[in-house]
Amino acid sequence: MSLVLPMAIHGILTIPGVTAHCSDGLVNVVFNSHYKLSQFSQMPGASNWLTFAFGTQPKQIPMLGNDKDAVDKAIAAVNGPNPPDYLLTFNEPDNDYKTGKVILHPKDAADLIKPLLKSPGNHTKFIAPVPAHQMSTWLTDFYNECQCRDFFAAHNVHIYRPTVEEAKAEINAFREKYNDKPLWITEIAPGQSTPRCPKTIPWDKSIKFMQEIYAWGQSTEWIHKIFWNSGNQINCNDTNVAASYLLDYKDKPTPLLDPFNHLTCS
């Protein structure tokens, strides 16, 4: 699909000097380990944030853990006096990065989530589990086991590719397989092809990737949220996010922060 928004719908964008604003809720951010709540205050361009733990801080979208205690905590939150608008369910349950084993097999995940299916509250919308390997059969097998596909308001995917073209191809391939709901991209960044930390971070390429992927996401209409990874700097041996963090270890802005806060999706 073209990065240029359809003229028939957004004709005003053809006027020189006029830019589009990103749709409300489209721009979001992920925080990894050692994050601080104060970091989000430097990102007024983001609507929401998430990290890899359950939490209900302002503007945070909580994430469901992989055990019974986590499910019980989620049930209490969605049935409490201030239920979250959204709740992310299992995060990459098909792959433990330390062992390479499956964390939750589809049947185990289906059994684990049953109490939440029975007590979902009246407000919260639930986002489908996101496999590490998005084109595997894990999600389909999970849906077959739980018979709960209609329970979820959106599908969910993680994408790390060096170029926007490759990222779009993977997103479109997932969309062809799961096209009955809107899509959330809860992790995305220009993953590096080298296994080593970059000697010089190609900020210009990361900025271009970020601007183009958000503009394309806006143009699709079926991508509702995109979470940039990462808000904070972590070990650069994680080549997925080695060239994409918005704040460094000292919470100082990188060259990516200002473009992130001023995305126009045009």
UniProtKB/TrEMBL annotation:
Signal peptide: 1-20
A Pfam family it matches: Glyco_hydro_cc
Keywords attached to this entry: Signal
Superkingdom of this protein's organism: Eukaryota
Domain Asl1-like glycosyl hydrolase catalytic positions: 30-259
InterPro entries assigned to the protein according to its UniProt record, in alphabetical order: ASL1, Asl1_glyco_hydro_catalytic, GH
Protein known as: Asl1-like glycosyl hydrolase catalytic domain-containing protein
Species, as recorded: Aspergillus tanneri
